[in-house]
From TrEMBL:
Cell compartment(s), UniProt: Membrane
TM ranges: 20-46, 58-80, 144-168, 174-197, 209-231, 243-266
Keywords: Membrane, Transmembrane, Transmembrane helix
Topology with respect to the bilayer: Multi-pass membrane protein
Gene Ontology CC annotations of this record: membrane
Any one GO molecular-function label of the UniProt entry: transmembrane transporter activity
Domain of life: Eukaryota
Primary localization: membrane
Keyword RNA-binding carried by entry: no
Name by which UniProt lists this protein: Adenylate cyclase
Length: 284
Protein backbone atom coordinates (compact mmCIF):
# COMPACT_ATOMS: atom_id res chain seq x y z
CA UNK A 1 0.00 0.00 0.00
CA UNK A 2 1.22 3.51 -0.84
CA UNK A 3 2.54 5.33 2.27
CA UNK A 4 0.07 8.19 1.85
CA UNK A 5 -2.87 5.78 1.44
CA UNK A 6 -1.66 3.96 4.53
CA UNK A 7 -1.58 7.32 6.30
CA UNK A 8 -5.20 8.03 5.36
CA UNK A 9 -6.18 4.56 6.53
CA UNK A 10 -4.54 5.24 9.89
CA UNK A 11 -6.46 8.51 10.05
CA UNK A 12 -9.86 6.91 9.54
CA UNK A 13 -9.28 4.08 12.00
CA UNK A 14 -7.85 6.33 14.70
CA UNK A 15 -9.46 6.23 18.12
CA UNK A 16 -8.84 9.97 18.39
CA UNK A 17 -10.73 11.38 15.37
CA UNK A 18 -10.03 15.07 15.97
CA UNK A 19 -7.89 15.29 12.83
CA UNK A 20 -10.65 13.85 10.67
CA UNK A 21 -13.30 16.09 12.25
CA UNK A 22 -11.20 19.23 11.67
CA UNK A 23 -10.70 18.19 8.04
CA UNK A 24 -14.50 17.88 7.68
CA UNK A 25 -15.00 21.32 9.24
CA UNK A 26 -12.41 22.79 6.87
CA UNK A 27 -14.21 21.23 3.89
CA UNK A 28 -17.56 22.66 5.01
CA UNK A 29 -16.04 26.08 5.67
CA UNK A 30 -14.72 26.31 2.11
CA UNK A 31 -18.18 25.41 0.83
CA UNK A 32 -19.96 27.95 3.01
CA UNK A 33 -17.67 30.96 3.24
CA UNK A 34 -16.11 31.28 -0.21
CA UNK A 35 -18.27 29.60 -2.82
CA UNK A 36 -21.25 31.98 -2.65
CA UNK A 37 -19.30 35.00 -3.89
CA UNK A 38 -19.94 34.03 -7.51
CA UNK A 39 -23.68 34.65 -7.39
CA UNK A 40 -24.06 37.21 -4.59
CA UNK A 41 -23.84 40.11 -7.03
CA UNK A 42 -26.64 38.54 -9.11
CA UNK A 43 -28.76 38.14 -6.01
CA UNK A 44 -28.25 41.78 -5.01
CA UNK A 45 -28.99 43.09 -8.50
CA UNK A 46 -32.36 41.37 -8.51
CA UNK A 47 -35.60 42.44 -6.83
CA UNK A 48 -36.20 43.83 -4.25
CA UNK A 49 -32.59 45.06 -3.90
CA UNK A 50 -32.06 46.25 -7.48
CA UNK A 51 -28.51 47.32 -6.73
CA UNK A 52 -26.37 49.02 -9.35
CA UNK A 53 -22.81 47.82 -10.14
CA UNK A 54 -21.50 50.73 -8.06
CA UNK A 55 -23.50 49.62 -5.02
CA UNK A 56 -22.26 46.05 -5.41
CA UNK A 57 -18.71 47.39 -5.58
CA UNK A 58 -19.21 49.32 -2.34
CA UNK A 59 -20.62 46.17 -0.72
CA UNK A 60 -17.54 44.16 -1.76
CA UNK A 61 -15.22 46.92 -0.54
CA UNK A 62 -16.89 47.05 2.88
CA UNK A 63 -16.71 43.27 3.20
CA UNK A 64 -13.02 43.13 2.25
CA UNK A 65 -12.19 46.04 4.55
CA UNK A 66 -13.93 44.44 7.53
CA UNK A 67 -12.19 41.11 6.92
CA UNK A 68 -8.80 42.83 6.69
CA UNK A 69 -9.32 44.66 9.99
CA UNK A 70 -10.64 41.54 11.69
CA UNK A 71 -7.73 39.43 10.41
CA UNK A 72 -5.18 41.93 11.71
CA UNK A 73 -6.88 42.33 15.09
CA UNK A 74 -7.42 38.61 15.64
CA UNK A 75 -3.86 37.77 14.60
CA UNK A 76 -2.43 40.26 17.10
CA UNK A 77 -4.76 39.09 19.87
CA UNK A 78 -3.94 35.43 19.20
CA UNK A 79 -0.19 36.06 19.13
CA UNK A 80 -0.40 37.92 22.44
CA UNK A 81 -2.75 35.57 24.28
CA UNK A 82 -1.23 32.24 23.28
CA UNK A 83 2.34 32.76 24.41
CA UNK A 84 2.89 29.44 26.17
CA UNK A 85 5.94 27.26 26.53
CA UNK A 86 6.08 23.94 24.76
CA UNK A 87 5.33 21.15 27.24
CA UNK A 88 8.45 19.13 27.97
CA UNK A 89 6.29 16.04 28.35
CA UNK A 90 6.14 15.78 24.56
CA UNK A 91 9.83 14.99 24.14
CA UNK A 92 10.76 11.66 22.59
CA UNK A 93 13.01 10.78 25.49
CA UNK A 94 9.87 10.23 27.59
CA UNK A 95 8.41 7.88 25.00
CA UNK A 96 10.95 5.09 24.42
CA UNK A 97 8.37 2.84 22.80
CA UNK A 98 7.71 5.34 20.01
CA UNK A 99 11.38 6.06 19.27
CA UNK A 100 11.39 3.89 16.17
CA UNK A 101 8.08 5.25 14.88
CA UNK A 102 9.25 8.81 14.32
CA UNK A 103 10.92 7.85 11.02
CA UNK A 104 7.99 5.80 9.80
CA UNK A 105 5.85 7.02 6.91
CA UNK A 106 2.72 6.09 8.88
CA UNK A 107 3.78 7.60 12.19
CA UNK A 108 1.19 10.36 12.10
CA UNK A 109 -1.45 8.67 14.22
CA UNK A 110 0.46 5.74 15.67
CA UNK A 111 3.08 7.98 17.25
CA UNK A 112 0.62 10.66 18.22
CA UNK A 113 -1.71 8.19 19.92
CA UNK A 114 1.19 7.11 22.12
CA UNK A 115 2.02 10.75 22.85
CA UNK A 116 -1.64 11.37 23.72
CA UNK A 117 -1.64 8.40 26.10
CA UNK A 118 1.46 9.74 27.79
CA UNK A 119 -0.05 13.20 28.07
CA UNK A 120 -3.19 11.89 29.70
CA UNK A 121 -1.26 10.19 32.49
CA UNK A 122 -1.46 13.34 34.57
CA UNK A 123 -0.73 11.54 37.82
CA UNK A 124 2.81 10.73 36.61
CA UNK A 125 3.65 14.30 35.53
CA UNK A 126 5.75 16.71 37.51
CA UNK A 127 3.95 19.94 38.53
CA UNK A 128 5.82 22.00 35.91
CA UNK A 129 4.91 19.54 33.17
CA UNK A 130 1.31 19.41 34.39
CA UNK A 131 1.06 23.20 34.27
CA UNK A 132 2.50 23.31 30.74
CA UNK A 133 0.08 20.68 29.51
CA UNK A 134 -2.81 22.52 31.18
CA UNK A 135 -1.91 25.66 29.23
CA UNK A 136 -1.91 23.66 25.99
CA UNK A 137 -5.39 22.27 26.68
CA UNK A 138 -6.62 25.71 27.76
CA UNK A 139 -5.35 27.19 24.48
CA UNK A 140 -7.19 24.49 22.52
CA UNK A 141 -10.36 25.35 24.42
CA UNK A 142 -10.05 29.02 23.48
CA UNK A 143 -9.39 28.18 19.84
CA UNK A 144 -12.45 25.94 19.54
CA UNK A 145 -14.59 28.49 21.40
CA UNK A 146 -13.67 31.13 18.84
CA UNK A 147 -14.39 28.80 15.92
CA UNK A 148 -17.76 27.87 17.47
CA UNK A 149 -18.76 31.53 17.79
CA UNK A 150 -17.56 32.16 14.23
CA UNK A 151 -19.69 29.38 12.77
CA UNK A 152 -22.70 30.51 14.81
CA UNK A 153 -22.42 34.02 13.36
CA UNK A 154 -21.80 32.67 9.86
CA UNK A 155 -24.98 30.60 10.16
CA UNK A 156 -26.96 33.65 11.30
CA UNK A 157 -25.46 35.71 8.47
CA UNK A 158 -26.51 33.20 5.82
CA UNK A 159 -30.02 32.99 7.29
CA UNK A 160 -30.39 36.78 7.30
CA UNK A 161 -29.23 37.28 3.72
CA UNK A 162 -31.25 34.25 2.61
CA UNK A 163 -34.51 35.78 3.86
CA UNK A 164 -33.59 39.41 3.09
CA UNK A 165 -35.32 39.31 -0.30
CA UNK A 166 -38.67 38.96 1.47
CA UNK A 167 -38.28 42.39 3.06
CA UNK A 168 -39.14 45.70 1.47
CA UNK A 169 -36.88 48.68 0.96
CA UNK A 170 -34.90 49.91 2.88
CA UNK A 171 -35.03 46.97 5.32
CA UNK A 172 -33.74 44.44 2.79
CA UNK A 173 -30.61 46.53 2.19
CA UNK A 174 -30.07 46.93 5.92
CA UNK A 175 -30.39 43.17 6.39
CA UNK A 176 -27.72 42.56 3.73
CA UNK A 177 -25.25 44.80 5.55
CA UNK A 178 -26.08 43.25 8.93
CA UNK A 179 -25.31 39.85 7.42
CA UNK A 180 -22.05 41.23 6.03
CA UNK A 181 -20.94 42.57 9.42
CA UNK A 182 -21.60 39.19 11.06
CA UNK A 183 -19.15 37.58 8.65
CA UNK A 184 -16.15 39.39 10.13
CA UNK A 185 -15.49 36.43 12.45
CA UNK A 186 -14.65 34.17 9.51
CA UNK A 187 -11.34 36.00 9.09
CA UNK A 188 -9.32 33.69 11.33
CA UNK A 189 -11.30 30.44 11.19
CA UNK A 190 -8.80 28.63 8.96
CA UNK A 191 -5.64 29.76 10.84
CA UNK A 192 -7.26 28.88 14.16
CA UNK A 193 -8.27 25.41 12.97
CA UNK A 194 -4.78 24.83 11.61
CA UNK A 195 -3.25 25.90 14.92
CA UNK A 196 -5.57 23.54 16.77
CA UNK A 197 -4.84 20.55 14.56
CA UNK A 198 -1.11 21.29 14.65
CA UNK A 199 -1.13 21.14 18.45
CA UNK A 200 -2.49 17.58 18.31
CA UNK A 201 0.53 16.09 16.55
CA UNK A 202 4.27 15.88 16.94
CA UNK A 203 6.67 18.04 14.92
CA UNK A 204 7.74 15.17 12.65
CA UNK A 205 4.22 14.78 11.30
CA UNK A 206 3.33 18.40 10.48
CA UNK A 207 4.12 18.16 6.74
CA UNK A 208 1.94 15.10 6.18
CA UNK A 209 -0.72 16.52 8.45
CA UNK A 210 -1.13 19.69 6.40
CA UNK A 211 -1.28 17.68 3.20
CA UNK A 212 -4.53 16.24 4.57
CA UNK A 213 -5.72 19.73 5.56
CA UNK A 214 -4.88 21.04 2.08
CA UNK A 215 -6.86 18.24 0.45
CA UNK A 216 -9.87 19.15 2.61
CA UNK A 217 -9.58 22.84 1.72
CA UNK A 218 -9.23 22.42 -2.02
CA UNK A 219 -11.82 19.66 -2.01
CA UNK A 220 -14.31 22.14 -0.58
CA UNK A 221 -13.45 24.67 -3.28
CA UNK A 222 -13.66 22.11 -6.07
CA UNK A 223 -17.09 20.98 -4.91
CA UNK A 224 -18.47 24.40 -3.96
CA UNK A 225 -17.30 26.53 -6.90
CA UNK A 226 -19.43 24.72 -9.52
CA UNK A 227 -22.23 23.28 -7.37
CA UNK A 228 -23.47 26.32 -5.42
CA UNK A 229 -23.86 28.61 -8.47
CA UNK A 230 -25.70 25.77 -10.20
CA UNK A 231 -27.92 25.35 -7.14
CA UNK A 232 -28.63 29.09 -7.18
CA UNK A 233 -29.51 28.98 -10.88
CA UNK A 234 -32.02 26.16 -10.35
CA UNK A 235 -33.70 27.76 -7.32
CA UNK A 236 -33.57 31.51 -8.03
CA UNK A 237 -36.95 31.56 -9.77
CA UNK A 238 -38.64 29.68 -6.92
CA UNK A 239 -36.85 30.97 -3.80
CA UNK A 240 -33.95 33.39 -4.50
CA UNK A 241 -32.36 32.90 -1.08
CA UNK A 242 -32.36 29.09 -1.14
CA UNK A 243 -28.62 28.84 -1.83
CA UNK A 244 -27.86 30.92 1.25
CA UNK A 245 -30.17 28.82 3.40
CA UNK A 246 -28.37 25.72 2.15
CA UNK A 247 -25.08 27.33 3.19
CA UNK A 248 -26.62 28.03 6.61
CA UNK A 249 -27.43 24.34 6.99
CA UNK A 250 -23.85 23.37 6.11
CA UNK A 251 -22.52 25.96 8.55
CA UNK A 252 -24.79 24.57 11.29
CA UNK A 253 -23.41 21.08 10.64
CA UNK A 254 -19.87 22.43 10.96
CA UNK A 255 -20.90 24.15 14.21
CA UNK A 256 -22.15 20.84 15.64
CA UNK A 257 -18.84 19.16 14.74
CA UNK A 258 -16.82 21.95 16.37
CA UNK A 259 -18.98 21.83 19.50
CA UNK A 260 -18.34 18.09 19.69
CA UNK A 261 -14.61 18.76 19.62
CA UNK A 262 -15.01 21.52 22.19
CA UNK A 263 -16.87 19.24 24.60
CA UNK A 264 -14.11 16.66 24.29
CA UNK A 265 -11.41 19.24 25.04
CA UNK A 266 -13.38 20.67 27.98
CA UNK A 267 -13.74 17.18 29.46
CA UNK A 268 -9.99 16.72 29.14
CA UNK A 269 -9.42 20.09 30.80
CA UNK A 270 -11.71 19.21 33.72
CA UNK A 271 -10.05 15.82 34.09
CA UNK A 272 -6.64 17.44 34.19
CA UNK A 273 -7.76 19.89 36.87
CA UNK A 274 -9.19 17.06 38.97
CA UNK A 275 -5.90 15.16 38.87
CA UNK A 276 -3.80 18.15 39.85
CA UNK A 277 -1.97 17.96 43.14
CA UNK A 278 -2.86 21.54 44.08
CA UNK A 279 -4.93 24.35 42.56
CA UNK A 280 -1.88 26.61 42.47
CA UNK A 281 -0.22 24.29 39.98
CA UNK A 282 -2.89 25.03 37.38
CA UNK A 283 -3.08 28.78 37.74
CA UNK A 284 -3.29 30.63 34.44
Amino acid sequence: MHPFCHLLFQLFRSKHPSTLLVAIVMFLYMLVALSDNQFTFLYLMGAPFCWTPEEVGVYNFVGSFLLSLASLALTLITAWSMRVKSPTVLTKSRLPESRHLSNSSVALLVDDEMVEQSQRSAEDLEPAHLQSWYHVIWSRTRMLTYVSVAFLLITLSKLIIGFAFRLSQPFCNAAVYVALVLLFTRAAVVPTLKSFISSLHSAENQNRLFVIVGIAEYGGLLVGEPSLPAFYAFTVSVFPGAAYLFCAVLSAIALVVVLTLLMSVVKELVSLKNTADSPATLSH
